[in-house]
Amino acid sequence: MSSGAAPAADAASPTREPLAVRLIGRGSLAGALLVLGIAALYAVVLPMVAERASAPAPPRIVDVGGGVSVVSEETWSEAVSDGGTTTLTQGGATLVIDQPHPSEGSVVARLDDLTADWIAEAPDGSVATAPRTFETDAGDDAATVVLQEPQQTVQAWVVSDGELEVIAVLTAPATAWDKTSSAAQALVRSMAFPETAP
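User: That's the sequence. What structure does it adopt?
Assistant: Structure tokens below.
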């Protein structure tokens, strides 16, 4: 009885081929090409598609007038502008950029004059920082000052290429200040004046 049971057990468990061989076929050139095609899809095509899909949007160039422009990230929205100003908004903050006008001296002296006027009109308890100078990405002179009021914070910039100057003012509630201040600083730093003929 034991000799007859062994052949029946062997017949009941046929060897199964792997799924890949059953789907593609054993030893076929078409099957090998299909496997290579799928491998190429995963190794080359899908990473290229993912890279293009996740690439950031190109920066937006905003013309503020007189040939002066700034590079705006997509987080800034351009609001209705009038009276020779460009208005951008972001997260409850407003950045107003005046059109360029003839330069009235050094950026620090001009900013000192503006700060004195703002402090005179600001609510009691308002304070201003000392002007901080820097250069724009294009190498133009710039200075900024921050005016802290009880309900909001104001930051102003004066940027000059020696012939023209632009004044920009950011107004933001305290809750949005940290994020919008650095974004506005980057935007002002990107300011480019028109090329002057030699």
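The chain is about 35% helix and 30% strand.
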